Give the backbone structure.
Amino acid sequence: MTTQSSTTILDVTTAAFDREVIERSKRLPVIVDFWAPWCGPCRLLGPMLEEAVRRSEGKLALAKVNSDEEPELAQRFGVQGIPAVKVFVEGRIAGEFVGALPEAQLRRFLERFLPTEAERLAQEAHRHESAGRWEEALRGYDTALSMKPDLHAALTGRLRVLAHLRRWDEAQAAYDACPGPLQVTEEVEAIRTTMELGRAASGGPSKGELQSRLRANPDDCEARYQLAMRDAAEGRYREALDGWLEIVKRDRQFRDDGARKMMLRLFGLIGARAPLTEEYRDKLARAIF
């Protein structure tokens, strides 16, 4: 990936696509232009798209995909002719066309995706969040939600900030207010895991007490479970996974298979393809089967 005239106009490779398009589109619309150097209409459309994105002043982003160099992406999104333009919003394709549109028609097409005032405020709040200005971010998300209560970017951002600030009761209320489809997204699931771990670490027996209980009785699955929760909350993921895995081996039915479920949730927090996840997914499979 190489940056062009601004950080909102990018050449995107297969390796960077999910990060630069799918994830970025959760903050602002991303136009994806599938093109090739030999394509005459592409050379007409490309500069018009770039100019439209520059005029949007950060409200739109453009990802340029050379379909000759990135055939996997072209195949993934069913590109059969170029130029092919697809606009991603909230991780999904929200609009598309094939061929070079006249400038006026292109302008009308893109205007559909310019953010509302609520969406603009949510984007600004995200910039505050990225810079560590947590209270400003929270106020921004609150203002955005006062205008559009179902705005997913603001609901997720507000939840993320409250979890970071360890305001657990407010975070739980924010999670409960999220619509069902949003609750089961990968990001919100990871935030919910962080919340549960944080709550566990802030109450109950101390770590020393839990360790003493385990030394006295290695079969104390409750002490082992709580100790794993604390380890995970403090970022000691390997120790947490070891603790839950041991419970799976000793008593699969403990807490209604809770140890295995917490391992799966921690995999989501760590990352599905992370080496630690792959290592312990294999260990869990061997323990179960």
User: Anything to note?
Assistant: The chain has a mean pLDDT of 92. Residues 81 and 271 are 35 Å apart (CA to CA). The longest helix spans residues 40-55. The radius of gyration is 23 Å.
